[in-house]
Amino acid sequence: MAPSPWPWMRYFQRTPQEDIDTVPDAAFIQANFTDFFGSIWLPQNSNAMTFDGVLRPFWNTSQGASAKNSFSMFCVADGGRWQATTANSAWFNQHIRFVVLVAGGPNGSESPFQDSTPQSWTLCIVGSQQLTATDRFLQVASWDGKVFRYYGRDELQAQGVPDGTLGWIYQGTSADAFLPDSTDSASSYLGPFNGHVNGSLLMKELRKYANLPWIHWFGTSPDPVPNFPQSILDSFSHDLAPYLTGESPCSLLQSAEVMMGYITEGIGKWMNTRATNNFRDSNKQQYLDFIPNGLKRWVAHILLTTTINIASAALQDPNKHNDMDVPPGHFYNQELATFNIGGKNSIFPNFFPSFYFSPSVGAPYQTAANKNLQLVILQDVNPVPPGMTPVVLPANTSLAAPDPKTGLVNITCVVVDSSEGPDGQFTIVQPSFEDAQGARVLMTQMSPVNGSKPAFLSYQTFNAMMMVDPWNPIYSWRRGVLLQYVPDSATFDSTTGTYDLDATFVKNVTASPMCKDSTSPESLFLANLKSDQTKFPNIFTTYLNAVQSRLGTVDGMTDYLRLAESRRRIYRSLPLDEFALTLPWALNYGTEQYWEMKSDGTVVPMDARGVNFFNTWRTSVSGYNPQIIPTPDADTWNSTRSSSSAEIISTQSHQPLPAIACQPSTSAGRLRKSGCPISKRRHAKVMSTAPLRTPQTPTWNDDIRVLFSAPPWLPKGQQQQVGQNWIDQMKYWGPLDLCSYEAVKAQAEIIYQHCASQSMPITSDPTQYWPADVLETFATWIDQGCRQSTDDPITRLKSPVTRLAAPAYVTRKDVRNLTADEIQIFRVALDDILGVGSLQGKWQELGQLHAWWCLHYQEGTFPWHRCWLRYVESLIGSPIPYWNVFASDAGDPTSQFAGLPQIFLDETYIHPDGSTRPNPLKYALAYQGLSKDKTSKYVQRNPKLVNGRPSQPGPALDAWNEEINLFATYRTMFQQALLQDLFSQPEGIGMPWANFPTFSESMDPTVYHAQHSFDGYFEQPHDNGHGWVGGSTGDMSDNTYTGFDPIFMVYHCGLDRLFDIYLNTHPNITVTAQFPLKPFGSQALSVNYTNPSPALNATIGEMTRSSQSIGYIYGPPACPDNFGTSDRRQAAKSTGGFSIRLLNKQSLPLLTKTATQKPIIIFKDVACTDQSYEIDVFLNGAKSTVADPVSNPDFVGRLFRLGMGIPHDDNEPLNKGRCRSANVTRVLQVENFADKIKDGFFQVVKRLESSGAVEVPKEEWKNMRGFVGELAWVV
């Protein structure tokens, strides 16, 4: 079918059915197509179906002295802050689009919205970067001096019209946004293009204050054009796009500041025209004595947030890296303050403080954004690019009620930027210019030709309204609920000389049952009405000062950024949210749905009535039949909040909220079929072509059975194997037959609860947990009656399954499994967030935190280090990888994976800013900028490991083999630790002599049974590993220096993984639960070095729970461990800090070996030392003292004593209790030498000094505590 010469008309169904395009009749054409574009240009150019096809004629007629129209082109690119590269071309969409303003009239060219004659016109033409494509969006807003008319080129949806037929579609006027929903001519849902809610043009960064930046418009700075891909720039050449490119690509673009002036002019004129249409008679002269409708929508500009603007922080001096100004719209309605609406008694003070923060590393902003909230930029992808980690935003966690009919789908995204992106700090949604203009109109005295009438509201009433919750300038439910008392009509009272809107509103509020609650918005409004309003500015000033003071604190900044995220999440489900690459996401948002500001500058979870308000409102505006005016709640809330449904609302408000769906995008592709950035599709008309991840009507045969038998989200090679294992295990342990429809149906809700909470399946591989879309499929199946086949009817449950949000974990991956992007994120975090190359960076504090506070030789040792790791992760906002030194292939000297991981050996890397920098995983500043051996400002490591495996035989290769073989002996120590039923001796418990009724010199040797414990066995190979990485002079070999080496993090993550395996396989261990792990706060997300109260600290009990309960899990290793770790064992009584406790007060005698006894070498009375030592043990008569278990059969083993460090500058460690004062034991397992060890052994002790390892004479070390080993045979 050929394109129609006249625009089609789109009829919006307000139902799940597709919208309908119809051919307009002559009467409709005559009544509606009266503007220049619809009546003149389009009928003459009906074949213009591309952006280029529309622009070229206007560009041609704009040239020369007799130009018929002006032509101004602007560019917006949500992702223009990031470089488009060959590597990301397959998935990264910069969302480039252009806005062109064309204006003319009978006298020729005009400026946009100049309106010099009644026949003047302005067109706003919007299209994508693909200038000649017919399947990308193309829209026109046509202004005739009175109203906007909206047109779009799209695929037609009409009976008898073949699919793919293009046509121009008329989608209503700006006035249609305000017509009653029942009106046939109301041709849009929420304004034209379902998002121009106030009928006017949209420019979300419309209001630019001071030096706040344009973060996605082409303007002064930053310029997105250099980041465009070359293929796009080639398509913008002068020959192909003369209206865009002159001497250089995009050189004809104008800045956003120019466009801002045009758009504000257009909005202001439309608002005035709208008021004229609403309030004047048919001749547009006299103001009406009776306003029949529309007032509620006008008052909504005051009480409701109809739309928003976007703003970001900016450097106070762009030429210097100094403090940044915060957008004031986050804290007060700067739009109303600018217009001074409210008269001389405005609530706003005469002077506003400047809100600012320091962007420097380690400042409160960085800590709040990167540590506490983990702000990132996301983009939706399908499929997930190779090597990238998906972030799934499940639809069922949206505040809009999940409903298969709404088209809500789970969205899979990837992280574009692990921060808010360049020039995008403190990006917020703030009060809009449109709402301020609406308030201005409503509060302005009317001045018609003959006579005048006052404003609809008195200043007193207006100020009383605005003083209800002014601390929340947008999305205030307290002001929003007041809208229900506003009448839609008003009558002029000639006696009083006023409209009765004011009096009727006050009367309605006074009569509300909610006034019985003195804290309700209704009561607050009435109190404000009676107050001395001259005091409002002082109250407001007190609030602003509180905000200013809190901006300088981590808690305050975290509060304000969390509040910004809360407001963004409300906005994201509203119409025309197309700014995914502009607005950041907080992946660590917390457990509340909504937050709100209080008058003291603090941020708290939203009141339950507010949660109900936004749930109801947002469900409406994101549905098929959206209503901008909220549903009244005054008559129902009093009863509702005490009912069970209120409890549900309250519970919902405490559920995790990782995702809010957003609206169709006009930038990602076709208007009809494109998916918006992180979005849902509301209508079938604009449903994405990608298949939904959640089947709408799942059945057992088609969708559910396979979830158990061959989980489809796993790699194909693993699906059937994993599924069969689940089935076998549940048959044995359940018993539950996951292959049986009847069995699964009977236990369906319980299965859902277990899978959603990730208590099932029981696995160490986090990829096996059920993804959010799979959980939603299963829940939908339950909701619809657990249908077996498509022949079964849908029988909906009266009470649908309560959706549970999946636990929010971070996954610590094997360092060998990291993708290139994940390695980059890790490196950048060390560079930019922790500042490993700066003595003023957070890195120095973290190293000293470990040096002076870590616990050793006691029950709290590994729980304390778990805290340290969690705290670092909270700072960098991403998981720390683990180094699996226990991998089978890592013990082979010929393996490429033996020794240190390659990422710690690389010299340089490319930073995201394009610069080549030293690799922060290798070049990290040592303690106070000087390594332990005094040779470098950077940390130093064992040179044998740093140099790697030599390619040629010789002494160097022999030394390499010795090092790798030596660590193999440590693995057996770790394995021994994992087999212990006893965890530790509780803190504060004395020596366990109570097992003996009496003591004597001649006790029966058979009483020398040993109590073995995990922590004592585990700490010894931990120490050995430190010495192995550090060598004789390296920083990892000294506790004062070890925390400054980045490899310390991944090494301890590897140990923590084994610690977690132990905890999971020994669920009944006994610990001193309340013992404080200073200086960490609860969950180890903060530190307080001066906190005197242990009640505020993390505890051993908290840190000996499974890692899942404290926010992280471990991914599977790249290579299996060289020992088994899956045995589940029973708990035993606890002991403390000891590898072994021998139940006799006397020295351990040398016993005679029996069949049930095993030899050990025990070191008693072990205590902390300042310096580090190596204790090597050899059989008597050894021919060599080479510490290599492979080449030297007489080498028994090594114990490394990790020194606590010598205080610098006579400064004592801050935590003097960090090393246990009570004596502990260390054990060397010598079972493999049982036949030879009876002939004795000897020791070689070396002290590790800055110059190297120095052998300690026996006369010296035999008098040192815990250095003399004794042979014992234990049961």
TrEMBL record:
* EC number(s) given by UniProt: 1.14.18.1
Question: Which InterPro entries does UniProt cross-reference here?
Answer: Di-copper_centre_dom_sf, Tyrosinase/Hemocyanin, Tyrosinase_Cu-bd
Catalytic reactions of this protein: 2 L-dopa + O2 = 2 L-dopaquinone + 2 H2O; L-tyrosine + O2 = L-dopaquinone + H2O
Tell me the superkingdom of the source. Answer: Eukaryota
Q: Which residues form the Tyrosinase copper-binding domain?
A: 1045-1056
List the keywords (alphabetical).
Answer: Copper, Melanin biosynthesis, Metal-binding
GO molecular function term, any single one: tyrosinase activity
One BP term from GO: melanin biosynthetic process
Cite a single Pfam family from the UniProt record.
Tyrosinase
- Is the keyword Metal-binding in the record? yes
Q: Which PROSITE patterns match?
A: TYROSINASE_2
**UniProt xrefs under Gene3D superfamilies:** Di-copper center containing domain from catechol oxidase (1.10.1280.10)
To which protein family does this belong?
Answer: Belongs to the tyrosinase family.
From the Swiss-Prot or TrEMBL record, give the protein name.
Answer: tyrosinase
Q: Origin organism of this chain? A: Gomphillus americanus
* The organism's taxonomic lineage, starting at the top: Eukaryota, Fungi, Dikarya, Ascomycota, Pezizomycotina
